[in-house]
Write a structure and sequence with these properties.
Oligomer: single chain
Helix content: 10-25%
Number of strands: 11
Structural class: alpha+beta
Strand content: 25-35%
Shape: elongated
Order of helices and strands: HEEHEHEEEEHEEEEH
Radius of gyration: 21 Å
Length: 172
């Protein structure tokens, strides 16, 4: 649905990845303690000749069984706080009524579609609480190349914007 919406005249589709997504969320619930590799020990531990110190884990690191859920809650909480609302029946899809933007979040991959003049404002709202990498026109998303192009409708003869999905590299 987001891709279709991005093909409407005057609309575009852009993507960005959350940087170290899980570690942006605080780990809540049952306390978790971890061992740090010796090369990450502070000098104080080495000076005290500590043998096997453990420290509390505060961020939802990859590999922790609850990390994904904590990231998802953190991300959704932020999106709701800046005006995105969940699309009923479509998990991980959001609508921003004021900016008329459609957002899809799949783990750490964000795809935003809507009026070209509103996308920068939408990304600004998202980036206020989620650290993202570079925002780029839709290209590779979830292992699938997205080719957006102008065409002529075989049904009406009118110009249309189309999208083609190329998964050849992924299937290889």
């Amino acid at each position: 649905c987001g891709d279709f919406y991005g093909c409407v005249p005057g609309h575009v589709i852009e993507c960005a990845d959350a940087e170290q997504a899980y570690a942006q969320a605080k780990l809540k619930g049952t306390p978790t303690w971890i061992r740090l590799p010796k090369d990450r020990w502070p000098q104080e531990w080495i000076d005290k000749k500590m043998k096997d110190p453990v420290v509390p884990l505060h961020l939802a690191l990859y590999g922790h069984p609850d990390a994904g859920g904590h990231w998802e809650r953190h991300c959704e909480s932020h999106l709701l706080s800046v005006g995105f609302t969940p699309v009923k029946e479509w998990r991980s899809c959001y609508w921003h009524e004021e900016l008329k933007l459609f957002l899809v979040v799949y783990v750490d991959d964000f795809k935003l579609a809507g009026p070209k003049e509103n996308l920068a404002k939408g990304w600004e709202k998202i980036k206020a609480g989620v650290t993202l990498g570079d925002v780029e026109p839709v290209g590779l998303y979830l292992g699938c190349k997205h080719h957006v192009f102008d065409a002529v409708s075989p049904y009406t003869g009118l110009p249309v914007r189309a999208i083609e999905y190329d998964m050849e590299d992924f299937l290889g």
